[in-house]
Amino acid sequence: MRYRCASALALLLSSVPAWAGDKPLYQPAPDWVKPAPPIDTGKLDGESPVVMLFDQQQRLHDGQSWAYTDSATRIASAQTLNQAGTVQLPWQPDGGDLIIHRVEILRGNERIDALAKGERFTVLRREEQLEQLQLTGVLTATMTVEGLRVGDVLRVTFSNTNKDSALAGNVQTVMPLVSEPLRVGFARARLLWDGATPVKWNAHGKGMPPMPMRAGAYQDLEVTVPLAKAEELPGDAPARFRRLEILEASSFADWQAVSRTMEPLYRTPGLIAPGSALAGEVAKIKAAHAAPLDRTAAALRLVQDEVRYLFNGMAGGNYHPQSPTDTWQRRYGDCKAKTLLLLALLHALDVEAEPVLASIGMGDLVTERLPSAAAFNHVIVRATVDGRTLWLDGTDSGIRREDLGDTPPFRNVLPLRPAGAGLMPLPMVAPTRPQGRSMLEIDQSAGFTLPTPFKAKIEVRGAMGQELNLAASQADREQKDEMVGGILSRLLGGALIVDRSIRWDAATGIATIEASGVADSAWSLEEQKLQLGLDQAIGQLSFDPDRSRTAWQQLPVATNGPSHTEVTMRVRLPDGGKGVTLEGDRELAGRYAGLTVQRQVTQEGGWLVARDVLLADGAEIAPGEIAAQRARVAQAKNRLLVAVAPEQRPAHWEEVMAARRDKRLGALEAVFAKDLAANPKSAEAFERRARFRTGLYDWRGALADVDQAIALGATIDRYLWRAELHQQVNDDAKALADLRAAETLEPASIPVQLAIAQFEAEHGQATAALARIDRQSPTGGEQRSNLQLVRSNVLAEGGRVDDALASLDSAVKTSPGQATLLNGRCWLKGTRNVALDTALRDCTKAIELAESPSSILDSRGMVYFRMNRLDDALADFDAALEMAPGMPASLFMRGVVRKAKGDAAGSAADFAAATLQSPRIAEEYARYGIKP
Which of these, 771, 765, 735, lies nearest to 753 by C-alpha position? Predict the structure, then answer.
């Protein structure tokens, strides 16, 4: 395999070496090729396969591989014509020749020979993968086939030859094996090798192919394809259990032979000339560092930071590394070049080091491969310092002295030694330093339910850190803001960020993001408890391997890693943390499905601090341990760490009033003021503060901000919002003006028409409101239901209660399972004090249908109140408020019920809370005849 230092195994081998031409050759197929069966175009129809022929034949001879490909594609559609009509054949001229044998169109009984007509391929000289930092030297021969049309069959036959001097006369090849469910008319994979070459072969597909047959001077092996569909495996099965759909062959006797053959490419004597620039770098390192470990770290940093990565596959560069001198002068190189440079530096620094081959992406599948260089696509350094084994990758980045003991996730490597070496298992351990560390500080001292100022800090090291630094250095302010916002959204959701920074510390190799702003309260109501989730480990862990099939029951589970993450949350609690308790696993120390978790929790001085450390080493879980680990994870998930607020905590409205009284909202106001200072012409910034002020029932403050937002950009949503705010401050004239302005902007908006109709009905213009509604005609969905509900309310406001009920009866009959309509009918009956017996049935059925029935419980509580069943009414209002604390309607009616039952203090508190949140709520209920 070429050493592209790539992220996945490429299956088609193109070796390096003997000089070849940079133009395609046009020759007949070689005589060792076995012709494919003829294609019967007379029997083609729409059900025929698009791939009519895919014939691969390869010959290994005298150190050369010759790959012959014969393909035929049915041009089944215009899309296929666009895709197949331009033939593209890449090849690497310093590795071998591209030989064109045939390009022809099959049309019924007609054979149109494009080559005989004089059509030829054009050679494109371009680096198509330069954006992937690969300088391949690959040329592409292209031909747009003249006259090709839908219904034709295009047949293309060509060969690639390759011979690689780095293999010292050995040969190796990899041939992909197509498999079902791919439909193909005829497919074949055939391999020949001369009797003088001791070739080993392996077909990794299901079932063994026939043994090779003698064909003159050659061994002839043929594999029937497509292979049967691969057996399905669970996604968490280790890589070695997955089928490699390849036919590979190699003349290497064993891994030791591969090691011996490749080792000369990385010999370093004489590569750093005295007095050269590299010799000067060696002298600097020696002068600055005496300890071998420090020298090793300095050499690795020099290679990682001072030489950029660029794959070089030109001029024999597939296996041959460029010299350290060239690498240093050019300041770029691929894994081969960086490894040789690092080796030369380490040897000059008297550090014991050797090259090792590795496979990115293959892991333990390497052990299933034939011994060959093709099994690898990467090369790194194994150093021994003070008795410690260090794995050093010159293509990595941000590695510092503290990280030298970390191991890459290759699992198996092959040391290159003069005497040869076998495969070496690579130990998997969690990194010493965190690859990511996040710290979140939230100040909830103003109240459990109020928005919270926050500070966040995220540290990322290694390659991810450098990528972040590179992106930040090239981004403008808006792009940086989006980048930081995207990263922090995982911690905070949709928080308002007002300060942000990204900085890179070259000494530590850490990129740091810092931000501050304001976020919604992180506390949530769960099972009637106000809770703050503190777990950052077990809750994120998913372990539910599927081993239901008999064939899977002996498969281990592969886990992620190596990785090291730290997450810390600091919370400043209200009232110094008085009454706050912890539930769940306050301490954790152990392994959970391959993840080692370490937890520390402290609660002191009003601050609650929880720190989780997560270490993953990528270890497998044996089949016999799966059930126990599943149970262990499940038990831990049932004990997730949470902070629980006191049961007798203040209600939200009480926290708002207390925060206002004690002037504890200054920090929050300062954040929004800073946001506006940075975005003085942003309507969205004014909207953000308006929403914040609305949440604190500061109607006039919110109104001033929405005024500014509309001045900067009028929309119907902003006009509707301001109309609502004007109503809250008892300015109906301005509210109507806003509704009219919204109508001017978008006359056909149903929400606008419904809002105006509701306003007209509540102000004695029910006839006009009804006419307005009847002019609307939505065809269905949510708008239809809203229109039906508002229409019934308008009728009721105009004194036509029977007509209102008839209208809803019709709507419910049309959509009998719609909870909103049933609730609307229950509410109408309750507020108008009619048909109370059927109202109960409506509400109860709606509660059964709804996912969140708090508003329906409120409606049923109204019905119970009308029936003078005060205890039942109180129970429903309490239940509604448990689901939706602070709901003004339920607070107001609970106040009414409490007053009727003689609870003056409770009633007054409820009225105050309801009025704070909805200043004109008493007027609304007065229209229903309810005046406490």
Answer: 771
Q: How far apart are CA 657 and CA 651, in angstroms?
A: 10
Q: Say how far apart CA 462 and CA 259 lie, in whole Å.
A: 30
Q: Is 705 exposed, middle or buried (0-12, 13-18, 19+ CB in 10 A)?
A: buried
Summarised one tens digit per residue, pLDDT across range 803-828 is 999 999 999 998 888 999 999 999 99
| 852-909 pLDDT, tens digit each | 899 999 999 999 999 999 999 999 999 999 888 889 999 999 999 999 999 999 999 9
Measured CA to CA, the distance from residue 314 to residue 349 in angstroms comes to: 31
Amino acid letter, 80? T
Most confident of 16-20, 123-127, 329-333, 713-717: 713-717
Q: pLDDT: is 79 or 243 the higher one?
A: 79
Please state, in angstroms and rounded to a whole number, the distance separating the CA atoms of residues 732 and 607.
47
For the chain, where do the domains classified as CATH 2.60.40.3140 start and end?
A: 25-224+244-251
Closest CA to 142 of 86, 85, 101: 86
Cα atoms in the 13 Å half-sphere on the side-chain side of 632: 15
**Per-residue confidence (pLDDT) for residue 486, from 0 to 100:** 83
Residue 498 Ramachandran class (φ > 0 left, ψ -120 to 50 alpha, else beta): alpha
Would you say the pTM of this structure is higher than 0.85?
no
The alpha carbon of residue 913 and the mean position of all alpha carbons in its chain are separated, in whole angstroms, by 44
- pLDDT, average across residues 629-653: 93
Q: For residue 402, count CB atoms less than 10 angstroms from its CB and return exposed for 0-12, middle for 13-18, buried for 19 or more.
A: middle
- Cα angle value 443/640/635 (rounded, 5°): 175
Peptide bond into 562 cis (omega under 30): yes
Assigned token pair, 863: 């019905």
What's the CA gap between 379 and 373, in Å, rounded?
A: 11
Which amino acid does the sequence have at 291? Answer: A
Contact of 355 with 379, CB cutoff 8 Å: yes
Q: What is the C-alpha separation between 406 and 355, in angstroms, rounded?
A: 17
**What is the rounded (10 degree) CA torsion for 696, 701, 704, 705?**
-40
* Residue 277: CB atoms within 10 Å: 11
- Contacts from 622-625 at CB under 8 Å and sequence distance 24+? 622/556, 623/547, 623/553, 623/554, 623/555, 623/556
3-state class (DSSP) for residue 222: strand
What's the confidence (pLDDT) of residue 475?
Answer: 81
Residues in the chain: 932
**Matching CATH number, 258-425, of 3.10.620.30, 3.30.70.1520, 3.30.200.20, 3.40.50.1100:** 3.10.620.30
- The pLDDT value recorded for residue 212 is 79
Residue 449: how many CB atoms within 10 A of its CB? 26
Please indicate whether residue 492 or residue 447 has the higher confidence score (pLDDT). Answer: 447
Per residue in 516-529, pLDDT (tens digit) is 999 999 899 888 88
Q: Which CATH class is domain 25-224+244-251?
A: mainly beta
- CB neighbourhood size of 243 (10 A): 15
Reference 432, options 471, 491, 387, 388; nearest CA is: 388
Give CA–CA dist 790/749, Å, rounded: 15
User: Can you state the angle between helices 292-306 and 277-288, rounded to 10 degrees?
Assistant: 140
Q: What is the pLDDT of residue 229?
A: 85
Name the residue among 105, 104, 109, 112 with its Cα closest to residue 42.
Answer: 109
Query: Which residue ranges does the chain devote to CATH 3.10.620.30?
Result: 258-425
Q: Dump the DSSP string for 155-168.
A: EEEEEEEEE-GGGT
Q: What distance in Å separates the CA atoms of residue 512 and residue 504, rounded to the nearest whole number?
A: 6
Identify the H or E element spanning 223.
strand 218-225
Nearest to 750 by CA among 791, 711, 710: 791
Q: What are the backbone angles phi and psi of residue 423, rounded to the nearest 5°?
A: -60, 140
CB of 401 closer than 8 Å to CB of 288: no
Residue 894 DSSP SS3: helix
